[in-house]
Amino acid sequence: MKNLDHWIGGLAVAPGSGTYFDDLNPVDDSVYARVAAGTAADVDHAVETADKAFRQHRDLPAAVREGWMVKAAEIMERDAALFSEVLIDEIGSPAAKAGFETRFALSFLRAAAGVPRRVRGETIPSDTPGRFSMSLRQPVGVVAGITPFNVPLIKGIKQSAMALATGNAFVLLPSEAAPKVADLLAALWREAGVPDGLFNIVYGNGAEIGDALTGHPKVASITFTGSSRVGKHIAGIAARNLKKYTLELGGKSPLIVCADADLEKAVGAALFSIFMYQGQVCMGASRIYVERPIFDAFAKAFAAATAKAKGGDLREPTTMLGPIISERQRDRVRRHIDDARTKGAAVLAGAEWNGNSCSATVLSGVTPEMTVFAEETFGPVTSLYPFDSLDEAIDLANDTEYGLSASIFTRDIDKALRFAQQAEAGMVHINAPTLHDEPHVPFGGTKASGFGREGTEADLEIMTEWKWVTVQTATAGHGGH
């Protein structure tokens, strides 16, 4: 099996330690690839290389960077099947999810093509006569990106495309569970014409080398997607070193179903919101609140639909559920379900295992002393709760440390807009799933779900730095004569 080496300065670079780790296919835990185990020295090499490349290429015209995005989109469209295949085999994506992720990455590249020409400042009236005043947006330098296993292509494209489109250099530390996806990105950007050194990858264990990357003195900005615990740690490093950063973290997203909702649509949306990619999605609706008059009807319909959620062959288009990514995460899912059962929760559907896959699971009667009540499971598990009024639903939805996404199903626009205003979440969807993203929107959460926002507009805040420039003209002090 060919080893997967770091990508630094346009070259495959063996790890300084000489050691490699196994990248496993989660279907059966067979070895999918052997991957370089990075060290702090490898990180330093990548950042120094990126910094040098940035200084060499920082003044490239916007049209050149626009060209990279356009070409990358063409390559992504051409190689969509290859990207999907790797997503299926490396991280256990069902074909439908792999196709969605590839299409989103392509869409993001097309949206990013417009970014280089939008890196604009403005002219500003000055209080000093004869002084011309203006602001400029300039690239920050080296951007560090850390991506998760669950949507490695979406996040890898989001982070790297925005860094490159705004004139920066980029160093990627991908999840240990998704290195091959990152390797495909290196090939994509090189073919798209990005100069060597502007896009770099260091593989390895984030717990061991993440601090070397985020704390490196030549890293100016950090964009991270992962757990809230690690996000808080990175925020501390960024604060101590006065770095810009964006964090997209965990969630415990609520989905509200009012008595006047379209029941069939609400059931379908709930199914997608929590069981897409076997629940390994930060926006997953792991808390579903249903107004009491329709609680029993919804529970029955949702449990029946859940029981039909298909597992099995990942390449079959109708497969929704695949394997849980690792044994550590499987243990977490089992622990949450078993704890709830032991403490009296009812299992309305699922809670069965087939190899490394857990069936879609619906719980009822979940109480605060159960682990699943407040903690993010990150698996195909959701809980149903009744409510009696919209005020109660809003209070229940907000009773969490997280605040990523929220959804409400109702035909009453007043109720919908009131919920949208009062929900403590970065994103609220009305009569739609909790799970949704688009390239140009301000994507992100509040509270323990994140800091800052992602997107072709929002990312300008961490990818560029404002500079104020004034010019004192010769007519100053002459009163215009």
From TrEMBL:
PANTHER family: BENZALDEHYDE DEHYDROGENASE YFMT
Active-site positions on this chain: 248
Pfam families assigned: Aldedh
Organism: Sphingobium fuliginis (strain ATCC 27551)
Xref: SUPFAM superfamilies: ALDH-like
Keyword match GTP-binding: no
Domain of life: Bacteria
Family according to the record: Belongs to the aldehyde dehydrogenase family.
Name of the coding gene: vdh
CDD domains for this protein: ALDH_VaniDH_like
The Aldehyde dehydrogenase domain, residue ranges: 18-469
Record InterPro entries: Ald_DH/histidinol_DH, Ald_DH_C, Ald_DH_CS_CYS, Ald_DH_CS_GLU, Ald_DH_N, Aldehyde_DH_dom
GO molecular function: oxidoreductase activity, acting on the aldehyde or oxo group of donors, NAD or NADP as acceptor
Keyword terms: NAD, Oxidoreductase, Plasmid
Protein name per Swiss-Prot or TrEMBL: Aldehyde dehydrogenase family protein
